[in-house]
Amino acid sequence: xxxxxxxxxxxxxxxxxxxxxxxxxxxxxxxxxxxxxxxxxxxxxxxxxxxxxxxxxxxxxxxxxxxxxxxxxxxxxxxxxxxxxxxxxxxxxxxxxxx
Amino acid sequence: xxxxxxxxxxxxxxxxxxxxxxxxxxxxxxxxxxxxxxxxxxxxxxxxxxxxxxxxxxxxxxxxxxxxxxxxxxxxxxxxxxxxxxxxxxxxxxxxxxxxxxxxxxxxxxxxxxxxxxxxxxxxxxxxxxxxxxxxxxxxxxxxxxxxxxxxxxxxxxxxxxxxxxxxxxxxxxxxxxxxxxxxxxxxxxxxxxxxxxxxxxxxxxxxxxxxxxx
Lengths: 99, 215
Description:
The structure holds 2 protein chains of 2 kinds.
Chain A: H1 3-6, H2 11-34, H3 38-56, H4 64-80, H5 85-93
Helix pairs in contact in A: 2-3
Chain B: H1 10-15, H2 32-60, H3 71-99, H4 103-133, H5 148-178, H6 184-210
Helix pairs in contact in B: 2-5, 2-6, 3-4, 3-6, 4-5, 5-6
């Protein structure tokens, strides 16, 4: 039996569906009223992603070993991609080449 | 060999293959096909991550990054979000129906999901045409940094490609499932892919649309 068959009812699914849409509306309202800011938008997007992965994709119902195999490695790669920001600041505000 | 370590595929047992109906242990207690889809999803997540980080790099290092999206574009993106998240719900209905062996119901909900994907694509192409009409091109635009178009069209184009690919895959799987060629797990596996497409959009909207909202 697949993991998804073990979940009973759709109550949590409807709740997550509403929550994701609500967060999307909140993002738009926050951007329009307080001004768009990465540090306001990104945490909300991460919450949406967490809800989608855990409840829609049912990763919550899978074995912990699968979560451990998938999530930390992916997050590590995404974090490592952050190394470029120093260079972008250098191009924006500093000289391209030191004399 | 411990019986706890083997899994018996019903198909093999039914057809009486030379392997006596015994297969290898399922990785993480899920079918190998499902694990493959998960591995594809995380590799694609890294691809989209790289593209979004590259966009951030270009945006951060540009002195005059244009902010062009007016209220109409923002509300359009919200409508597209509603459609895509709703299709994630409908594909869950399809999975539930497939697990209950309701082939007609699973086919219906999968095709509704595919139709939602097509509607999303139509709205997105309309957005593209509006921007192109206003002068946005890949490497030029009338507003500011020339790389705006390349960043926007490549990110949203890559996502749209995934949506269209998902629509095709869901249609094929739905038709094959209804004809009895595919099992419920195939619907479930492609539902995973469809949720991932939705997941990527949840990052594209704030990073590409909302951050570039017109002041």
